[in-house]
Design brief:
With 101 residues, the protein is an all-alpha fold. It has five helices and no strands. 82% of the residues lie in helices and 0% in strands.
């Protein structure tokens, strides 16, 4: 799942969103099955998929993924963990982007 996620990040950074999306989705699916639905790696993949959707202007689809990633992080890593802070920052940026559009 980690390798799929990393490949999806690479494709996203190249602007190949249509190729990246199914890899993120597959990484999440594998992570949920092998690590459990509340594992921090699943949260990281959710956060990355949300970022992809945000880049495409799909704010309504991205927001719940960011929220789920934050929730997982708070439960498993604690509310003050850097991964949680990153998720909160990403969600705030999404909300800011929605206001400016």
């Amino acid at each position: 799942a980690t390798t799929l996620n990393n490949l999806a990040v690479l494709l996203k950074n190249q602007g190949k969103y249509d190729e990246a999306m199914p890899l993120y989705e597959r990484a999440i699916e594998i992570g949920e099955k092998t690590l459990g639905p509340n594992h921090p790696q699943v949260a990281a993949s959710l956060n990355n998929l949300a970022g992809l959707l945000e880049n495409q202007g799909k704010y309504d689809e991205a927001k719940p993924l960011y929220e789920r990633a934050i929730e997982i992080g708070e439960k498993t890593l604690g509310p003050n963990h850097p991964q949680v802070a990153t998720g909160l920052n990403n969600l705030a940026a999404l909300l800011e982007d929605q206001v400016s559009c």
